Amino acid sequence: MTTSSSTKLSLSAGALSVTVAAILVLAKLWALGQTGALSVAASLADSAMDLMVSLGAMAAILYAAKPADEDHAFGHSSVEDLAALGQAIFILISAGVIAAAAVQRLIAPEPTSLAAEGAGMAVMALSIVLTLGLVLWQGHVAKATGNKVVAADRLHYLGDLLPNIGAIISLWAASAFGMTSIDSVVALGAAAMLALGALRIGANAWHALMDRSADPEVISGIEAIARGWPGVRGFHDIKTRTAGSRIFVQIHIELDGQQTLSEAHAIGAGLRRAILAAYPQADVIIHKDIAQETAVPSSAGT
Question: Which residues fall within 8 angstroms of residue 166, CB to CB, at 6 or more apart?
Answer without folding.
Answer: 39, 186, 189, 190
